[in-house]
Amino acid sequence: MYLVKSPRLLKKLYSKLTWHMPPGKPSIFLTFDDGPIPIVTPFVLKILKRHNAKATFFCIGDNISKHPDVFEQVKSDGHAIGNHTYNHLNGWKTEDKIYIENTLKTDSLLHTNLFRPPYGRIKRSQVSLLQKAKPGLQFIMWDVLSGDFDINLDPEKCLKNVLKHTRPGSVVVFHDSLKAFPRLEYVLPRAMEAWAGKGYAFEGLPSNDEKSTTSIKKLKGQMSKQSPTEIDKQLKDLRDEWE
Ligand SMILES: [Zn+2]
Question: Which pLDDT tens digit goes with each residue over 136-174?
Fold first, then answer.
């Protein structure tokens, strides 16, 4: 089960992470996780273009490798790009070294200061290791979860949830994934129409690449001591679980 609004306690515990943007101006920060993939990502791009909107795409490295043309399209449309690990790892179930290496593998493909942990699950140790590897890395969570990935959620209900909870400065999570598409396809155009009618603007999260190449190299050096077969095995198990 998931919560549409992030619980206050969780926000307090993880105060280092970003949950929403300052509510100063009437902007909404739409985010799309798990792409880039054919059909779904281009659909999202088309809807965004209709409203002259910018958004943020938290990409899975493996999908960037498989669909470089779709990734190029996202970039050339001027959207912000974020890291979502290479294999969609669950931080709670993953050894720190593997988690960091998997995340840095994606960093080499997109160079961004924006990161979102898959499932929103990350250990404090992983937060600090990543901060060491990439000073300036922003951990982007959300304050509105659309629930578009929930196959039992009625699209109309999904739309109502999203409209009810979004306010100025909200960071809203959608998924450009095949699983979410039946709901996303219904909700996104309607939600954007409603928000635009209320005078909201749509912005990408502020991104600039303040990567520290030296510390990434240093960290990679430390991690290479772990045997590659061991890493591969753990990654495979995680992938099986995800797929
Ligand atoms: Zn994800």
Answer: 899 999 989 999 999 999 999 999 999 999 998 899 999
Residue 82 Cα to ligand 1 midpoint, Å, equals 11
Q: Are 73 and 42 in contact (CB under 8 A)?
A: yes
Kind plus residue range of the DSSP H or E element containing 53: none
Q: Give me the DSSP letters along 174-185.
A: EE-STTTHHHHH
What fold characterizes domain 27-242?
A: TIM Barrel (3.20.20)
Q: Are 30 and 53 in contact (CB under 8 A)?
A: yes
CA of 170 to the centre of ligand 1 (A): 18
175 is annotated as an active-site residue: yes
pLDDT at 70 over 60: yes
Give the start-to-end residue ranges of the domains of the chain: 27-242
Question: If we measure between CA atoms, which residue out of 143, 154, 158, 149 comes closest to residue 191?
Answer: 158
CA of 87 from ligand 1 middle (Å) equals 10
Separation between Cα atoms, residue 74 and residue 84, nearest integer Å: 15
pLDDT (tens digit per residue) in 14-40: 666 777 666 656 899 999 999 999 999
Name the maximum alpha-carbon separation found in the chain: 55
User: Is 150 annotated as catalytic?
Assistant: no
